[in-house]
Amino acid sequence: AKAKRFILAGDHKQLPPTILSEEAKELSETLFEKLIEMYPQNSKMLEVQYRMNEKLMEFPSKEFYDGRLKADDSVRGITLADLNVKKPSFGKPWDDILNPKEPLVFVDTSRCRNRWERQRRGSLSRENPLEARIVKEIVEKLIEMGVKEDWIGVITPYDDQVDLIRSLLGDAIEVNTV
């Protein structure tokens, strides 16, 4: 209250509060969001990101930032191939899934017999054993291809899925929720 100026840095569109109660719904808007809404002229968006290939940032750029977010030239087209990760030789479908030149791959499990997620008794979270096993296999194959363990991070939306994947991978690979 006594400062002549203060600066808040962050992204109010990332990691919003998790509200589980209808009574607490009004807490879903953060102070940062309220300030930007009240003083839009004082809000400055940094439009260049330095973290990922443009194919990976395309969805969040369109969905959350009206397409204004751009990838810096240093990362725009970066892939695992640029990090000297060797081409896989595991056969189909793994060679396609793990192609080091492709930054974005979707693995469709919709036709798999054991594709269903489940809830642990007493938990509000979810887990999917099939997807956890696929993640484990992908991570193991990436390491065989020369990807260092500390280059790999697994992100999943559910706490119980984090626990399940960690139980399969151990502590060498970072696994966390969004």
Overall description:
The protein is mainly α. It has five helices and four strands. The chain has helices at residues 31-38, 54-65, 94-97, 129-144, 159-169; strands spanning 48-49, 70-71, 153-156, 174-177. It has a two-stranded parallel ribbon with strand order 1-2. The protein has a two-stranded parallel sheet with strand order 3-4. Helix 4 (129-144) packs across helix 5. The two termini are 34 Å apart.
Give the mean pLDDT. Answer: 93
Q: Which spans have pLDDT < 50 for at least 5 consecutive residues?
A: none
State the secondary-structure class. Answer: mainly alpha
Computed over alpha carbons, the radius of gyration is 20 Å
Number of helices: 5
Give the neighbour order of strands across the main sheet.
Answer: 1-2
- What portion of the residues fall into strands of 2 or more residues? 5-15%
Largest sheet features: 2 strands, parallel
Number of strands: 4
Distance between the termini: 34 Å
User: How are helices and strands ordered from N to C?
Assistant: HEHEHHEHE
Quickly list its features.
single chain; 178 residues; mainly alpha; two-stranded parallel ribbon; 5 helices; 4 strands; 29% helix; 7% strand; globular
In short:
With 178 residues, the chain is mainly alpha-helical. It is 29% helix and 7% strand.
Task: Describe the secondary-structure layout.
Elements: H1 31-38, E1 48-49, H2 54-65, E2 70-71, H3 94-97, H4 129-144, E3 153-156, H5 159-169, E4 174-177
Parallel strand pairs: 1-2, 3-4
Helix pairs in contact: 4-5
